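Support request, please re-run this one:
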Amino acid sequence: MSETVSIELQPLGRRFEVARGTALQDVLFAHGVEFPCGGHGRCKGCRVRVVAGELPITAKEREVLNTSEIAAGWRLACCGRADGDLTLDIGQWEETILADNSQFAFTPKDGLGVAVDLGTTTLVAQLVDRQTGRVLAVESALNPQAAYGADIMSRVQFGVEPAGREKLRDLIRTAIGGMVERLQREAGDGGTIQRVAIVGNTVMHHLFCGLDVTPLSIVPFETDHAGLQSFTAADLGWHALPSHSRIDFLPALGSFVGSDILAGVLATRLHESDAPVGLVDLGTNGEIVVGNRERMLCASTAAGPAFEGARISMGMRAATGAISEVRVKGDTLTCHVIGNTAPRGICGSGLVDAVAAGLELGTIQPTGRLADGAKEWVLAEPVRLTQGDIRELQLAKAAIHAGIGLLIEQWGIQPRELSTLYIAGAFGNYINLTSARRIGLIDFDLDRVRVVGNTALLGAKMALFDEDANQYAGLLGKIDHVPLASDAKFMDAYVDAMTFPENRSER
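Re-run finished. Output below.
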């Protein structure tokens, strides 16, 4: 018997060999499969479908997967081992990364720079010519830390122990260092990377910098080490760069509001606005900023992973086979499937559309209950929404809605006085704003709402052109963090926002 077996991944067309008995978790993460619960078999987040070969069903899988899913060949990658040749369908894990090609004002500098958006799930880095501001090359990858939990708190729990913190630190430094090295090779004789600017949420900031995440694991989730962290290439062992090359991890704003949101403030120039403006980055942790050039309030709210398709019974990332749009035509639904193929699941933008459509058709009541006591609603066979799926979206949208409302109130204006609401982030880039408004995620005239893409990456690029390490002191002094979790008004507003609007409201 051969000591190796073959694994083929569809529709990626990848084939490789591993030692017989290798745990699938050890090899599939590198190809995009995520392990939201850290590989403990508590969720469906790492589902793969067996096309050929055998993956015996385990007792743990029987607790999580239903009989029809098992019969269709679905398995949990975290429970499987490659004891024979396998062909696996992992199409739902095709990687999608939101980069940035925005133009911005800058003062030319010598050399090259790299801007890095260090996300909880994905990494993206852009090589920038600091003389022209032009993007010369892009690198993207999955965050290797996600093998120890897809969400922030799972990462924190693993990183509380010194050994876990060291492992997560080394993983992310190696991953980003490799990206920077490849970008330097891409530059060739075109110059040397002198600066690297990294942005990310507060947990990513602490883990990259090797800081203790214990304060972020307990209420009130505040840390004394959220400031600018600077390194040299020599400090990080990034030998492809000159030893003196400077690497800055931009400062966080407070609690879970990280430097990715500071970068968003820079990118939207919110800090230069005379009129009050809002910025919302939609994701598992919805970060919000409200203010103008005189003062700003920021907060984070645990929106949950529904916007990214997680914890949804047939949820998936925005990849081939995902229902990404749902429209009402007459009394029927029309679903758009990414890749124009048979539907296999639904991503976050499709979920928002589907619930908005259900409200219009009367299939979903304002309370969130399915009409006539139904337990599920078929969108396009075999994809359906369950009562639990709708509830997950209610929880997510209520957190964002209540957070925006409370910051506006504390800033001292009425919602109608907010001149612009910027929607940032990958999910925000693809969401249908009309649907978002219909479900009550946002409650503003759409003329005042602007989708602005990856502001974290744009803000990081802007930081490459400022050599002053103290440049953020004045800006940070104008921003106050509001701890929503301990605010009784937030909890009341959160409960009130759980229901869906009867009709679209004007604000």
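Residues 162-187 form the longest helix (26 residues). The chain has a mean pLDDT of 89.
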